[in-house]
Design brief:
By secondary structure, this protein is an alpha/beta fold. Helices cover about 50% and strands about 5% of the residues. It has 2 domains: about 120 residues, no CATH class; about 150 residues, no CATH class. Helix 9 crosses helix 11 and helix 9 crosses helix 13.
C-alpha cells in the first residue's frame, strides 16, 4: 500500500517535481521552456496552446505545489520556467504574484476562462435546444454568473472566516431551479452545511460574513468558480436550455466539451496570452506559445 502511494504522482513532493524538471533539462538535453500548471485538466488545455516542441507542460497537481516547485527552481537559478495558476480569490484579496515567473488566470480559474470564451456558445449549439436557448428570458452567461456568485461568496467566506465547508459532491439540483437557473441561498446553505457535516453552523452569521465581502465594483468573473457555473449549466441543458439526459451533460463531461471547444484564437484574446508574450520577451530565447 505504501509503495502505491509513493508511485502516485499526486503524492510527489515539490522537490521531487522540481528534480524531475531539472533532469529533463540535463539528461534529455531538452533546451526549451517549462510551463508548470496546477492540475491534470489544466495540463490538457495548455498542451493544446503551447508550442509543441519548445515548451513542456508539467503538472504539479495543485496550486500550492505549483508555486513551491517554481520557487525551488528559481532559487537554483533555473532558467526558462513559468507557472500559471488559478487566480481563485487572490485578485479580490489584493494578492499579486510574488514572482515575474508566476501568472494568474484572467478570471477565477481556467474553467471560467473557457466559459467566458465563445467555447460556451459552441457547447450550447451542440448540446442545447435551439428553441430553448433562443427563448431563454435572460443572457445565459450572465444568468450563470448571477447564480454561481452566491456560491462564490460562500466559498470565499468559508476560506476567509475558517468555516472549512465542503463543496465537493454538492447536489446542485437541491438549490438551483431547473427552469430559471435561480439559486435559493437558504437551500444552498442548508445543503452545504449537511454536506460538510456541520448542521450547527449559524446561518445568519454566515450570510452576514458573505455580505461583508460584497462590493459593487467586484468582477463576478473573479467571484464565481468555474466548477459551480458548469454544474449549473449541466442542470440547464436538461431542462431550461435543452433536453439532455443528465448523464450526457454531467459536469465533468461538460468540462471536457468546453476544453475541446476552446481554440487558440480564443486564448489570444486574453490578458494571460499577452502576459506570456511579455514573459517570452524578457526570457529569450525561451518560448511558450505556439506561433500559430
Amino acid at each position: 500500500m505504501t509503495q502505491n502511494l509513493k508511485l502516485d504522482p499526486q503524492n510527489l513532493k515539490p522537490d521531487r517535481i522540481a528534480n524531475r524538471i531539472r533532469l529533463l533539462r540535463t539528461q534529455s538535453q531538452y533546451t526549451g521552456s517549462f510551463l508548470i500548471v496546477e492540475g491534470d485538466t489544466d495540463a490538457r488545455v495548455w498542451t493544446n496552446l503551447v508550442h509543441s516542441t519548445k515548451c513542456r507542460v508539467e503538472n504539479a497537481y495543485n496550486k500550492d505545489k505549483a508555486v513551491q516547485v517554481l520557487n525551488i527552481l528559481e532559487q537554483g537559478n533555473f532558467a526558462g520556467v513559468l507557472a500559471v495558476v488559478d487566480a481563485d480569490f487572490d485578485i479580490l484579496e489584493g494578492t499579486v504574484p510574488l514572482s515575474p515567473n508566476l501568472l494568474f488566470t484572467d478570471t477565477h480559474d481556467l474553467e471560467t476562462m473557457l466559459l467566458k470564451s465563445p467555447a460556451l456558445e459552441k457547447v450550447l449549439l451542440e448540446h442545447g435546444s435551439e428553441a430553448k436557448v433562443n427563448n431563454f428570458a435572460k443572457d445565459i452567461r450572465q444568468t450563470l454568473l448571477e447564480s454561481a456568485k452566491i456560491i462564490g461568496y460562500l466559498r470565499w467566506a468559508s476560506l476567509k472566516f475558517n468555516y472549512c465547508l465542503k463543496f465537493e459532491g454538492l447536489a446542485f439540483n437541491k438549490f438551483v431551479d431547473d427552469k430559471t437557473l435561480a439559486l435559493n441561498e437558504s437551500k444552498l446553505l442548508q445543503t452545504v452545511k449537511n454536506n460538510s457535516q456541520k448542521p450547527g453552523l449559524d446561518e445568519p452569521k454566515i450570510t452576514a460574513n458573505m455580505d461583508s465581502l460584497k462590493t459593487y465594483t467586484q468582477d463576478m468573473w473573479h467571484v464565481c468558480c468555474g466548477h459551480d457555473m458548469i454544474a449549473i449549466l449541466s442542470i440547464a441543458l436538461c431542462k431550461a436550455l435543452g433536453s439532455c439526459n443528465s448523464k450526457e451533460v454531467e459536469p465533468n463531461v461538460l468540462e471536457k466539451y468546453l476544453r475541446v471547444a476552446y481554440e487558440s484564437a480564443h486564448f489570444r484574446e486574453t490578458k494571460l496570452y499577452t502576459a506570456i508574450q511579455t514573459w517570452e520577451q524578457t526570457n529569450k530565447p525561451f518560448q511558450v506559445l505556439s506561433n500559430l
